[in-house]
Sequence to fold (345 residues):
Amino acid sequence: MTRIFSGVKPTGHLTLGNYLGAIRGWAEVDQHRSDSVFCVVDLHALTVDHDPARVRRLSRQAATLLLASGIDPDRSVLFVQSHVDEHARLSYLLECVASDGEMRRMIQYKEKAPVEQARGGSVRLSLLTYPVLMAADILAYGADEVPVGDDQTQHVELTRDLAARFNQRYGQTFTLPRATRPEVAARVMDLQDPTSKMGKSHESGAGIVYLLDEPDVVRKKIMRAVTDSGSEVVYDRGTRPGVSNLLEILAACEGGNPEGLSGVYESYGALKRDTADAVVELLRPVRERHRELVRDSAYVEGVLRTGAERAREMSRPTVDAAYRAIGLLPPAPAPADVVPVNMAR
Ligand code: AMP
Ligand code: TRP
Fold:
C-alpha cells in the first residue's frame, strides 16, 4: 500500500491556503487510499524568532484542527514531530549527505533569510538546514508520496536527491518519495496581494482567511479582496491575479475548475459574494468540530500519544538501518543471561 507522509508547521494560525492546498486532500482523499502519517512539525517552527508559549499553543491548535478537518486517528497516524526522536536522529545523518550549496539554493531560504536578517540581524542556522529535517521527516517513514502545496515541491525534490545519494553511497536504505498536489488551489494567494502566497505569518491578516475566522470576518476579507483593472471576470493568472485567485478558491470549494468559471460572472461583486458564501460553508463544519474538540483536550492528547507511539515503531527500523549503513557502530546488545543489578532480586 502507498505510504503517505505530510506535515504542517505551527508558526501561525492555519489558513485557507493550508486547507485547500493540503489538509482537505489528506482528510478527504489520501487517508482513504493509503497508509497515511500526518505530523505537526513543531521543530520546524523554531527556525525563526519564536515565542515558546505560542508554539506550544499553536501545536495543540494545529493538531485539533487536523482532527476537526476529518483526519481520522483510526485510519491515519497523527502526532507531534518532537515526540518522536527519530526525526532529529536521521536529520544529522542527512546533513552528512547534503551540501551547503544545495541548501542555499532553496527558494524558501532565499526568500526568508533576508527578512529574518532585516528583522533581527541574524539568521538561525536551522533555517538553512530546515529542508534536511524535512527530508528526515519523510524518509524515516519510507513515504512514497508527499501531498503538499506548490511551495514545497522543491523541498520534496531535494528529499528525493538526498535519498538517492544516500542509497548510492551506502546501500539501499530509503524509498524515493514524490510530491503530489491538488489540481486546483495548490497555491492560494493573499487576498490583498494576489502576487504573493497566502502565508500564515504575514504581518497584516487582511488578505488571509484563517480556518477559525468567524463567518462575518471571512465574508469581509473576501468582499475586500483586491481585484484587477478591467472588469471581465476571466481566469488568467498572469494578467488577472486577483480575480483568478478568487475563481480558483471558488472552484476548489465547489469541486470544479477555475477555467470552467471563466466568463460565468458579470461582475466582481457577484463573484466575491459567491466565493464568500462557498468559503463560509466549506469552513463551517471544521469550525464546529474544532469547538467540540477544544472541550475534550484529553481526547486530543490521547490521539497524539498513541500517534507518537505508532510513529516511533514505524520510523525506528529505517533510522537504525541508516545508522548501520553509514558506518556507525551498533551498540552491543545486553547479554541475555545477565540480569540487571536492580532487577536481581
Ligand atoms: P505550512 O503552513 O508552511 O506548514 O504548510 C502546510 C501545508 O500547506 C504545505 O503542504 C503547504 O504547501 C500548504 N500551503 C501553505 N500555504 C499554502 C497556500 N497559500 N496555498 C496552497 N497550499 C499552501
Ligand atoms: N516544510 C513544510 C511547510 O513549510 C512542512 C513540513 C515539514 C513538511 N516536514 C514535512 C511537509 C514533511 C511535508 C512532509 O509547509
In short: Residues 5-7, 9, 41, 44, 134, 137-138, 146, 148, 152, 155 surround tryptophan (ligand 2) (CB under 6 Å). The CA atoms of residues 69 and 152 lie 21 Å apart.
